[in-house]
Amino acid sequence: MTGDLGFDIRDVITAALVLLAALMCFAAGVGLIRFPDVLSRLHAATKPQILGLIAIVADVAVTNPSVGTITLALAIVFFQSLTAPASAHMIGRAAYRTEHFRRDILVIDEYTPRQ
Asked: Which branch of life, at top level (predicted)?
């Protein structure tokens, strides 16, 4: 399925997915630098990073569409989607318990005891 310009549609999809993944990983890195505390940085560390990983894994599956590659890609996305929120939750709880966050920018604090 080669077009007039000598490139395959898979090349265009690959370029778009790699560009999306690079943008998401760059956004995660900038968020880690720019956000003020641990709880804010957790959002930047998990959400765009997972979307970037999904784009890279989708690119690998598009480039090499075999049953083994697609199965492995689905397993990678599944297990990464399970572990990233759990690890972010544990880091957030540890940061809260050791008070390594800015209480002045916290909108809702559901863990403080009610008076």
From this structure: Bacteria
